[in-house]
Amino acid sequence: MTRSTRSGSRTSADRLARLLNLVPFLLARPGIEIAEAAGDLGVTERQLREDLELLWVCGLPGYGPGDLIDMAFDGDRVTITYDAGIDRPLRLTPDEALALVVALRMLAETPGVANREAVERALVKIESAAGDRLGAPVAVRLPADNRRVAELRAAVESGRALRITYYSVARDETIERVVDPLRILVVGGRAYMEAWCRRAEGMRVFRVDRIDAVTRLAEPARVPSQAVPHDLTGGVFRPTADLPLVTLRIGRSERWITEYYPCERVEPGDGEWLVSLRVTDLGWARRFVLGLGPEVTVVAPAELATQVHAAATAALEAYAMPPPSAAADPAASTSSR
């Protein structure tokens, strides 16, 4: 890798690594020329000056005089005059060590982590250093089917195609599919498998807890070169303008909908609110509305309102009809005295 390539890297991870190395580097070389430091660190002078400007606002909580990293400039030379304690060995309190162990264990349990061995090594070092201060051993389990996640992760690593039996909530049906798995990931506390679905001829994201059965096939996975993984940073469901728009009038007890689902429009009122949201299809929306309380009314589309009314009417009629045995036995309808 050339120096120009290194100096052009502006990712947050790269810059954080540079900043963490920069302070001890300068502490060991007081009064070093900026040009010499930039050459030793493999960055441009402009990039080093930008990093030094950022260090000026870094430091300890409080972020006032005596808390922030400070430095002195003499022409083109720089000296760290206050390092905010960065040169002292890190000493964690029991609570800090426990929080770090829990975070690392969650990271180790997260599907798709590339360098799990590095996480495990860090855990061993922290737990060894903390000793008895951590108290009881820490065990972390993510809210997912760990056995199925491990099975799917192994399938991804083996590069084999899978036959899965999957329950689709949108269609309210269970379908068998042959997929070419790409990766396992966790979004919002749930585990998902992203794969090329041969049935749909496109990339699909499958919730692990809705996969009822998995069979590893002998043939290798064949993810087309043009297949692009989904950007799931904003969540699994990404509403688009081509999806059906549903408008509901909701009461106070159903306002949780606006926090749980991505809504396109929310119009608060004195009592009822108007809420509009995109759905995958009207079949899912019908089951969703029927599962809500009485303080929900479908405003649009008319087709959904008709479907909900018909389903609710059919349910009421089923409850109103006496069972066949009662209709055949007149004594069953006679009240006791």
Automatic annotation (TrEMBL):
The record's annotation in Pfam families points to: HTH_PafC, WCX, WYL
Q: According to the lineage, what is the superkingdom?
A: Bacteria
Q: Which PROSITE patterns match?
A: WYL
According to the entry, every stretch annotated as the PafC HTH domain falls at 14-127
WCX domain segment(s): 246-316
Where do the WYL domain residues begin and end?
Answer: 149-215
Q: What is this protein called?
A: Transcriptional regulator-like protein
Q: Which organism is it from?
A: Salinispora tropica (strain ATCC BAA-916 / DSM 44818 / JCM 13857 / NBRC 105044 / CNB-440)
